[in-house]
UniProtKB/TrEMBL annotation:
<dbReference type="InterPro" id="IPR042080">
    <property type="entry name" value="RNA_2'-PTrans_N"/>
</dbReference>
<dbReference type="Pfam" id="PF01885">
    <property type="entry name" value="PTS_2-RNA"/>
</dbReference>
<dbReference type="GO" id="GO:0003950">
    <property type="term" value="F:NAD+ poly-ADP-ribosyltransferase activity"/>
</dbReference>
<comment type="function">
    <text>Removes the 2'-phosphate from RNA via an intermediate in which the phosphate is ADP-ribosylated by NAD followed by a presumed transesterification to release the RNA and generate ADP-ribose 1''-2''-cyclic phosphate (APPR&gt;P). May function as an ADP-ribosylase.</text>
</comment>
<comment type="similarity">
    <text>Belongs to the KptA/TPT1 family.</text>
</comment>
<keyword id="KW-0808">Transferase</keyword>
<dbReference type="GO" id="GO:0000215">
    <property type="term" value="F:tRNA 2'-phosphotransferase activity"/>
</dbReference>
<dbReference type="InterPro" id="IPR002745">
    <property type="entry name" value="Ptrans_KptA/Tpt1"/>
</dbReference>
<dbReference type="InterPro" id="IPR042081">
    <property type="entry name" value="RNA_2'-PTrans_C"/>
</dbReference>
<keyword id="KW-0520">NAD</keyword>
<protein>
    <recommendedName>
        <fullName>Probable RNA 2'-phosphotransferase</fullName>
        <ecNumber>2.7.1.-</ecNumber>
    </recommendedName>
</protein>
<dbReference type="InterPro" id="IPR022928">
    <property type="entry name" value="RNA_2'-PTrans_KptA"/>
</dbReference>
<dbReference type="GO" id="GO:0006388">
    <property type="term" value="P:tRNA splicing, via endonucleolytic cleavage and ligation"/>
</dbReference>
Amino acid sequence: MVRISKFLSLVLRHQPEAVGLALDSGGWVEVDRLIAACAAKGRRFSRADLDHVVASNNKKRFAYSEDGLRIRASQGHSVAVELGLPATVPPDVLYHGTASVTLPLILREGLKPMSRQDVHLSADVATAGRVGARHGRPVVLAVDAAGLAASGHEFRVSANGVWLTDRVPPQWLREVPRA
């Protein structure tokens, strides 16, 4: 299931063309077409396998359409999609986890989406710490989301609770002391 999940992340977030698919403008693809296209490239799985991956993924990376006929990644796309998420008032503080090696650059230039469409923020320190640990010694940054929103920045929240914004200038960031 982990291999299927990682492959789905590749296809539904970054390279749908790897299996000969194109995502619609909202990032959706028909489930039957996805299964068939993956099978044609030697990555076989059933609808039941897909259901299990969607339901059990601890980060809730994937979502079905209301009718269950389409699937998409909840966020994290490097291909152009419009998730259709409404602007939402954020909590006062959000968090971003990163590796300590990137801290000097971030404190100079702020948070940028890099290869993704949006900067990803967490609602809690623990989640941000886990994200930061993926790339080395983790550092957690607190984002003054209320101040940033008041200055005109828009926030959206994905189906799996990840907060999204276009960028975070450095003046809205502070390092959270390690516990």
